[in-house]
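User: Before I run my own analysis I want an independent prediction to cross-check against. Here's the chain; please return only the structure tokens and, at the end, one sentence I can use as a sanity check.
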Amino acid sequence: MNFLAERRLILAETRRDIAGNILVIAAQGEDDAGSLLTQGKFAMGDPGNVPAGKYAKAALDKMHMWEKVKANAVFADNVRAALEFVRKGAAKAAIVYGSDLKAAPELKAAYTFDPATHAPIRYPAALTRDNPTARAFLEFLSSSEGQAIFAEWGFVPAGAMN
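Assistant: Structure tokens:
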């Protein structure tokens, strides 16, 4: 969105966050969150190019854990791939977005990262300058009905973000 805004390709006055997310450690069992990362392999998005991986590394850095656990990390191309490592037993846990747990109902959030440990996870939307006709859709996404749908799918509603 910043790329588009810098090039003046959006109607700036319509830009808004429509949802957010949380960062969790997903696992199959009841293991302690610390042991999930320190004892055996865990999966996460590659912090070099996967947004969830960047958030995860930032959180672990802030918690002074990255240096202790980085050797146990298996980097995936995306969070859904990280979830698959856990689902197939190749890793004990995965650091993913809370909304991704909807795709793996057999997994649970063994730990939820404090949002203060990483940049806010926000999903912005705006109308484009060339085609401002999606105004009704943007308004729907921001409405209570749209926000309820986001919440149903595991996203943090825009009004609940800091």
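Sanity check: The beta strands are 16-20, 23-27, 42-45, 73-76, 93-97, 108-112, 122-125, 156-157.
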